[in-house]
Design a protein that fits this description.
The structure is a homodimer. By secondary structure, chain A is an alpha/beta fold. Helices cover about 45% and strands about 15% of the residues of chain A. The first copy, chain A, contains 14 helices and 10 strands. The radius of gyration of chain A is 20 Å and the shape is globular.
Chain lengths: ~350, ~350
């Protein structure tokens, strides 16, 4: 089980004048080095954290809660509304859990995929936990895919891009952003809403994974709608994705990828046809009912062409195993890694 | 120019057992009380803040920067990467600016609409500024529409809903969320992705504004695509919006509204036909080229049926006026208010 860092300098630490290595090539190199296509989804639920991870960070959690409380008091956010203390404790606990999860399952993975919603629901303390989780994952040599599913127009699209990849100039200096290696993106607002993300990502050597078809039942409502010109809406989106990406010169993998719900494996061959160079991010493994063996078409352009994402099936593996959470998560991530590697 | 609070107890302070007042009725009451349909868009750009607003809060800014720095140090976010100090200063400055903007233009408005991207790009310090801006707007009797354009499935949709409206239970107590009165929502992922937002909003007496057609040129790529069954994609979305909303018993206005780009006024009559009870949020006024006089169809179900949103044309009004930013913003917001009120 390879645990070594991927050897690529995080683009946020780069700062050099030479152009960034294209995301497709970075991704392919990371997959090869770590011998893994597994993406560790990080969707922390404050009611289902790992007790041992929390116990191991009791002191630093207390320090963080105190510092967060000082911020609230400095802008009078502690006044008036109830429940604010709860989120400080919860955010510190979530951070400790994420540390433990990354330490346990990270060595079998090539990337982490924090679900921003799960941090955001704890307000700014949740964003502190998110930033520190991202920093920890990078320190472990993992790529970071921010599962943000953002989508907006013009200046707002640019601002979301800056939130993820940095580059905002302020009178006080540049603001770094989250420092992610890639972000998930909602294409509904069209090409000019997608463009700032693609440009910003490309400048940073980062990538964009566009929602092409999701894995929920309601995806049929819009993604699967038949168009007057023939084909389905998701096939139109797939065309936008293929047109937006630029393949890396070494790997041939593009810097604009696709999120393809793995619960409908019949779509994968057609998706690959429409997007020959795009890396596919395949959620829906495990808890959502997808199976790794159905994913073979994703790997056509090489192993890094299909990233297998799993969240609950790893973090909650102990619920059906006779061992501690960390041990069960490690075993489940490694099981997925072996399964996918054998296919790719 | 009416400046009185809207008289409705913020739902986040409610906590009582009686059911929340439906959003449509709250909105109609607020519009009537404040005699305004203007929504103040808050899209702060750290490079274009109001100097006087910053000068007036120098001391509290310094206090906030210090507290934010303590948080960074407590989780070692200050190490390794450059530019972190910049975002602390920028976030404190953004908060001071937003205070000034709300104090100046808020009295002519019924609601504020913070663009989450503009805060998010400053990381967790930006989220502190967002939360404090929301709190200040509520204190001024303004409704808060979180311009988040979120959209995700299952547990992630629920988490985003909790981020905006609260209701997350943690072992440490309930977490309050942002405490917004409404949120903008991306419908691409379908009905089951929309449902948690609608249910959560309804429980809180809050509302959801679904993107039906945006005001950017690229909206033509997907929103305007012709379907095999006839009609355009945005008309299909409009049908989902109409089906998802429940009208308030007093106002007849629904709790699920629509974001309708005001740059294509020809669409508005058709939108009103498809969504007779939905409040319309109409961005694109001023800076994006829309004109208030084109919006009449929006107001068919009453004045609160059309909310006129403007951001840069208010915050940057001083660029074309011979007065200070606060004065120019106040005058521009009042001008918009009078114009819309005369139509509605």
């Amino acid at each position: 089980m390879p645990a070594a860092p991927n050897g690529l300098s995080p683009r946020a630490q780069a700062g050099e004048a030479s152009p960034a290595i294209p995301f497709g090539d970075r991704l392919a190199a990371a997959v090869a080095t770590r011998e893994s296509q597994v993406v560790l989804g990080i969707d922390p639920d404050p009611a289902a954290l790992w007790p041992a991870a929390l116990a191991g960070m009791a002191e630093s959690r207390a320090r963080l809660v105190m510092a967060l409380g000082d911020v609230e008091r400095s802008v009078a956010l502690d006044a008036g509304r109830g429940g604010r203390a709860a989120r400080l404790e919860a955010a510190a606990a979530v951070l400790a859990h994420c540390h433990g999860l990354i330490d346990a399952a990270g060595p079998a993975c090539v990337a982490v995929k924090p679900q921003l919603a799960c941090f955001e629901r704890l307000g700014f303390p949740g964003w502190v936990a998110l930033e520190a989780t991202v920093a920890h994952a990078r320190d472990q040599g993992l790529l970071v895919i921010a599962d943000a599913k953002r989508g907006d127009i013009a200046g707002s699209a640019l601002a979301y891009q800056q939130a993820v990849f940095g580059g905002l100039e302020t009178p006080h200096g540049a603001s770094p952003g989250l420092g992610a290696d890639a972000v998930t993106q909602n294409p509904l607002l069209g090409r000019d809403a997608l463009a700032p993300f693609v440009v910003g990502a490309r400048t940073a050597g980062a990538g964009v994974f566009v929602l092409v078809r999701t894995s929920n039942p309601g995806a049929a409502d819009l993604f699967d709608v038949e168009l007057a010109t023939g084909g389905k809406l998701w096939e139109l989106i797939a065309g936008l994705v293929a047109a937006a990406g630029t393949p890396g010169p070494i790997s041939g993998l593009a810097d604009v990828g696709a999120v393809c719900g793995a619960t409908v494996p019949a779509h994968l061959a057609r998706m690959r046809e429409l997007m020959p160079c795009a890396p596919f991010l395949l959620p829906g493994i495990g808890a959502q009912g997808g199976a790794v063996a159905d994913l073979a078409p994703a790997f056509a352009p090489g192993r890094a062409g299909g990233l297998v994402s799993a969240s609950r099936s790893i973090a909650n593996a102990h619920e059906t195993a006779a061992c501690a959470p960390a041990e069960a998560a490690r075993a489940e991530a490694e099981r997925l890694r072996e399964q996918a590697w054998a296919l790719g």
